[in-house]
Design goal:
Layout lengths: L1 H117 L6 H11 L2 E8 L8 E5 L14 E5 L3 E4 L2 E6 L9 E9 L11 E9 L2 E9 L7 E5 L5 E5 L1
Antiparallel strand pairs: 1-6, 1-10, 2-3, 2-9, 3-4, 4-5, 6-7, 7-8
Protein name: Cytokine receptor like factor 3
Organism: Macaca mulatta
Length: 264
């Protein structure tokens, strides 16, 4: 009994030693694991830091490249805006020049008319006649179109104001169609002018050449000398009317939208 009791403490001591060794081994293992976690944490932080630096550098490079591209694109767009501005303003400048020319012409006519009227009739008949011829001139300018042409499209002058016609290619009217054909009282002339296109200038000069009754063989009682000019070419003809007219009417007829006509 005594021997068994003495042996038991030795077993307990041995067991205690083994438990201590196991605990020490477990502590070492946990220590290694903690070291591994610390190393993993360090590597993650280092990798994250490197990644941040790479991203910052990459986006700085991108900002430089994109900034250069954007600057170049901005310069191109500004140049396009400048070009559009110039192209848009040019017709206005041309229109202003034409209007200013018309104003100067009107002022000259006013002065000439006032001088002619001061002389009254008699010796000043020639001045009155000259002034009357100049004042009867009609000018069209700057025909602009983005629409589809039609053979009935026309711009011209008529002796009477009538509605219901679909074209100026009719009686009591002279006109030029957009293909350059000239019509007098609805009949097409042999002579033809260049086609009327965007930016074309068409001028109508009209003066009375016969007052009173004409020869009946000519088929009219009132004769007007008409000159139509377009693109550095012109046609001249006599326009016979059934009776004298106190005024003429400008007219234009287009069958598709998009035409723009400045008249003065």
């Amino acid at each position: 009994m005594r021997g068994a009791m003495e042996l038991e403490p030795e077993l307990l001591l041995q067991e205690a030693r083994e438990n201590v060794e196991a605990a020490q081994s477990y502590r070492r293992e946990l220590g290694h694991r903690l070291e591994g976690l610390r190393e993993a944490r360090r590597q993650i932080k280092e990798s994250a830091s490197q990644t941040r630096d790479v991203l910052k550098q990459h986006f700085n490079d991108l900002k430089g490249t994109l900034g250069k591209l954007l600057d170049e694109r901005l310069v191109t767009l500004l140049q396009e805006v400048d070009t559009i501005e110039q192209e848009t303003i040019k017709p206005l400048d041309d229109c202003q020049k034409l209007i200013e020319h018309g104003v100067n012409t009107a002022e000259d006519l006013v002065r000439e008319g006032e001088i002619a009227m001061l002389g009254g009739v008699g010796e000043e008949n020639e001045k009155l006649w000259s002034f009357t011829k100049k004042a009867s001139h009609i000018q069209l300018d700057r025909v602009e179109t983005v629409g589809q042409p039609d053979r009935r499209d026309s711009i011209g002058v008529c002796a009477e104001k009538q509605d219901g016609y679909d074209s100026l290619q009719r009686d009591q009217a002279v006109c030029i169609s957009t293909n350059g054909a000239v019509f007098v009282n609805g009949k097409e002339m042999t002579n033809q002018l260049p086609a009327v296109t965007s930016g074309s200038t068409v001028t109508f000069d009209i003066e009375a050449v016969t007052l009173g009754t004409c020869n009946n063989n000519e088929g009219g009682h009132f004769k007007l000398r008409v000159t139509i000019s377009s693109n550095n070419r012109e046609v001249v003809f006599d326009w016979l009317l059934d009776q004298s007219c106190g005024s003429l009417y400008f007219g234009c007829s287009f069958f598709y939208p998009g035409w723009k006509v400045l008249v003065f």
